[in-house]
UniProtKB/TrEMBL annotation:
Record function comment: Catalyzes the first step in hexosamine metabolism, converting fructose-6P into glucosamine-6P using glutamine as a nitrogen source.
EC number, as in UniProt: 2.6.1.16
Record text on subunit structure and interactions: Homodimer.
Organism, as annotated: Agromyces marinus
Active site: 364
Gene Ontology terms, MF aspect: transaminase activity
Reaction(s) catalysed by this chain's protein: D-fructose 6-phosphate + L-glutamine = D-glucosamine 6-phosphate + L-glutamate
Protein name: Glutamine--fructose-6-phosphate aminotransferase [isomerizing]
Full protein stretch here: 248 to 616 of 616
Leader sequence segment: none
Subcellular location: Cytoplasm
Amino acid sequence: EKGGWSSFMRKEVSEQPDAVANTIRGRVVDGVVAIPELEAFGDESLRDVRRITVVACGTAAYAGMVAKYAIEQWTRIPVEVELSHEFRYRDPVIDEHTLVVSISQSGETMDTLMAVKYAREQGARTISVCNTQGATIPRESDAVVYTHAGPEVAVASTKAFVAQITALYLFGLHVARVRGTLSDAELAEHVDELLAIPGKLSTVLEESDRVGELAHWMSDTRSVLFLGRHVGFPIAMEGALKLKELAYIHAEGFAAGELKHGPIALIEPGQPVFVVVPSPRGSASLHPKVVSNIQEIRARGARVIAIAEAGDAAVLPFADEVIRIPLAAPLFEPLLAVVPLQIFAMELSQAKGLDVDQPRNLAKSVTVE
Ligand code: F6R
């Protein structure tokens, strides 16, 4: 039940620190990641994997896109992320060395179920990342890593998304340990980052009032763009999806590097653009590139709302608004940066008087293809 919250979505957004903590619980023992559910799967078969194909739809697919960056970096296994419905009908190249990882909150999404069944028929091994105990997709998979976000009632996925990224990161660290692609010190560093996320999420939630004000002030906006790079790119697309489904506002998420290849033509005076800014402490080249992207759109009149790390002063001269997130290692920033975007879409929906839990034309579980 809503337990005093004005909507299920508001309640579920606020439950994100617990969703992450509960998904980690029992999978980090004495600082070492070991997912009990993968034991049955066997270390030998994890060493045998040559390629990982992630299949999912919507928000779950964006969780997969975020995790691709981490899993490839940590395990050196090539990862591709496919929309389930595109994967199923294009004669994909898969064999017994392919690991197909499906992501589904409900575990009942027909497109994803069909992709998993197809992958198994082709001889691939399958792991399900799922939030619903005993659902169809985990039953049809060789192994399941449950997210423990708790029941998600609002149609728009929020806490399941951060739990999916968490489960996939745990999976990546488990595989990296088994395959020996990270040192013990590196593994420990990433585990520490993950364990710190629930506390940092609480900080983001406590400081989200400004996002609400912004949304109310922007309630007659007709189009919003979102930009990001690296792990910030899927977060930009997720921010756009939330705004489309909850506030019925046209929104697009772009890779910031793609701007000059077309989308910058959309920028006209007053166009609101959210920019997910990578940490200045991360990969040397990313941060200044995004700052210069901000300058380019600002010069054309965009109204820039930057989501940037606390203390990042480089964005200040060019952004109209800066929403701060706590410091985190670059791969872990998406778990924090997505929250202001969820809240923005939710507040804008409420400012327009819409039903935030039950947006028009959508169902929580899509059981038809
Ligand atoms: C967006 C949203 C959808 C789902 C998608 C997959 O907020 O909720 O995009 O993420 O329909 O659903 P599951 O995860 O149940 O397979």
